[in-house]
Amino acid sequence: MSEIFLSQENIETSNVIPHPGSDEEQRLYKLMQNKFAKEYNNIFPNISAAKTIVIVPSLSVDQEILSKVSGSVHYEERLLCLLMLLRMPRTQIIYLTSVPIDPVIVDYYLHLLPGITGYHARQRLTMMSCFDAAAKPLTEKILERPRLMERIRKLILPGHPAHIACFNMTALERTLSIQLQLPVYGIDPDLLHFGTKSGSRKIFKECGLTVPEGFEDLSDETDIVEALTELKMKNASLEKAVVKMNEGFSGEGNAVFDFSNSPQNGALKKWVKGKLRAKLEIVASDLQYELFIEKFKSMQGIVEEFIPGKEKMSPSAQCRIDPLGKAEVLSTHDQVLGGIEGQVFLGANFPAQPAYAKEIGLMGKEIAHKLRDNGVIGRFSADFISVKKENKWKHYALELNLRKGGTTHPFLMLQGLTVGNYDIEKGVYLTANGQPRYYFSSDNLKSDKYIGLTPHDLIDIAMFNRLQYDGSLQQGVMFHLIGALSQYGKLGVVCIGDTASRANAFYRRTVQVLNREGKQ
Questions:
Q1: Full-prediction pTM beyond 0.85?
Q2: In sequence order, what are the residues at sequence separation of 6 or more whose Cβ sits closer than 8 angstroms to the Cβ of residue 123?
Q3: Which residue, 136, 168, 186, sits at the end of a domain?
Q4: Which of 118, 218, 293, 372 has a CB 3.0–4.6 Å from the CB of 110, allowing a cystine?
């Protein structure tokens, strides 16, 4: 649960705010982040130290692709897991959102806090909203509201250690950092290329990991055709390939190309070119071919072979690099994927299967060391495809997500509630009293039956049916994305159990109850 802090000091040499994206802004940002690293140990070890965390859960990604994710504005609620930091009795949190979060949702999280009353935690929490549901990043909305930023500044006491925690880092978050004069626990935007699909493949290769056959740094439709043609020529049995935008997320920037009925001779390239529109199945709903190609040209991307297999899993390693260069593996997961050819993240089992959890963890550690050596800090995850052949698992490194992601908030909730740690060598998580814990999490529990259920309804249903987390047993069910339920019939869930089967049983019962209680 550790986050890091810096005393709020004005490091500027004048009162002039630098222009966003300017060399001066970048210079000041690096100065502030360097000071952040130097002062890290002054606050980090002391959970009783006074500190302020400004949480900005902005999804600063391509908004057209994000719009394909139903209820995307409510994904800002996923970082409510950081309210677990209020268990530290002198920690203040300022939480910003695009639209207000219903107080019943906030109270639901505060009720989970171990060892701290809801009243005590509420006194140290300030919820702030832009009252703006427009399709643009929350960070941009904050920057457009100078009075809101001034209120944020006034909430931080002079000399009080403070920092920004965000979902992902871009130039927008750097500008916000400078204008609020607060450091960020996250990657320098100048290093984001390491987390692109092309950058990921290069890092994996430098680590000596196996990657799918493919090509990176592709620019346009012509490059896609060339790459698809060469892949098929290298492997005549190849049935499918995946085209990925460099900055796609949750599979929404991917498309799958089908080689069925392709010629085996010199006519292949002409066939691929002629069939590209018809044979390219785009993952994001309602994203037309022309827009996909336009986005690909803007972001660039990769083409790689689609890995087949009768027994195939999608594990990931979640890691963290602190400002002092400590790189560690926090968890491993088996991702649950859906959509076209399993390209969309739906949920995850924690931890990954015992058969390969250690291998995934050690590969994650190798990647973390490589990224640390390149100056990266913050949380990230590495995704793999694992195929079982002759009773052995072969792992292919797929991509890096240099941000918080779908496996971040469930693990933070588990760790905040049980104060335990994941053992990379054993592939198990143990609570503070040495008990193993497992969970199943999903961001995509969805049904039309749930439409119309308000947050108040969900809490009533959960309490009546005992769908709640039991602090005495350190097991049970927790909900998130609650704000998306009424309009979109969608919510998230984390089900914690003392065995994997119990965690999944909690999930099945949750679905059963919601299906019964939802409208018929």
A1: yes
A2: none
A3: 186
A4: 118
